[in-house]
Amino acid sequence: MNDFINLNVAAERLVKKLRDNGITDERVLDAFRKVPRHEFVDGAMFNQAYDDNALPIGFGQTISQPTVVALMTQLLKLQRDEKILEIGTGSGFQTAILSQFSRRVYTIERHKELGDASRKRLREMGYQNIVFKIGDGTAGWSQHAPFDKIIVTAGAPVVPQTLAEQLSNGGIMLIPTGDRQQQELLVYSKQSNVLKCESAGSVAFVPLIGTHGWKM
């Protein structure tokens, strides 16, 4: 019971931090209350699970900083009945947040061990509206396109044309673009097959590896 209370206190503390950092969408804040971040980190980092920091998850990957996850989720302007494509499943935490808002989340992870672990974790946690794939995320998932929203959780050198083509009209795509160390978080909106772009500020993600991203 003490652990349960402490985890709730920690989650509320994180929600306050997110609010202080400019997250105003109450649905996003509620999602952070519902999704237990400690379930997505290694047990050795349990005590850091509700800090506003990125944490390593193996294979050179990280679970993103909560403020960044919340900001990206807020920028997607999610509605309930939408298809979302996520490039970079990672730990599955962002996937779980997205699933709170969507009809179906299609998520791709290039690391088989990481992807399989996330699939198992999310299935055991009861998530039913997530479809998993191991493969090259830069190619997207054409058989399920178009997508209402696309979110890329790794830094790309350029925007993959494959992903732009799989975004539906009226859709939004978020992708960090820049060099391997620092990127700009770009927000693309698509109207009449034309993409418009805005910047949401500087971010730092692991590199997006693939045919239409960085090479190994």
- Give the proportion of residues in helices: 25-40%
User: How many beta-strand elements?
Assistant: 9
* CATH homologous superfamily placement: Vaccinia Virus protein VP39
CATH class: Alpha Beta
Taken in chain order, the helices and strands follow as HHEEHEHEHEEHEEE
Main β-sheet description: 7 strands, mixed
Rg over CA atoms: 16 Å
Overall morphology: globular
User: Unreliable runs, pLDDT <50, ≥5 residues?
Assistant: none
Q: Tally the helices: what do you get?
A: 6
The CATH architecture classification is 3-Layer(aba) Sandwich
User: Helix- and strand-based class?
Assistant: alpha/beta
Give descriptors for this structure.
216 residues, alpha/beta, Rossmann fold, 7-stranded mixed beta sheet, two-stranded antiparallel sheet, 28% strand, globular
Note down, in words, how this protein is organized.
This protein has 216 residues and is an alpha/beta fold. The chain has one domain (2-203): Rossmann fold (3-Layer(aba) Sandwich). Helix content is 29%, strand content 28%. It has helices at residues 2-20, 26-34, 66-75, 93-99, 112-124, 161-165; strands at 55-58, 61-63, 83-87, 104-109, 130-134, 147-152, 167-178, 183-191, 194-203. Strands 5-4-3-6-7-8-9 form a seven-stranded mixed beta sheet. Strand 7 and strand 8 form a beta hairpin. The longest helix is centred in the first third of the chain and has 19 residues, at 2-20. The protein starts with a helix and ends in a 13-residue tail after the last strand. The mean pLDDT is 94.
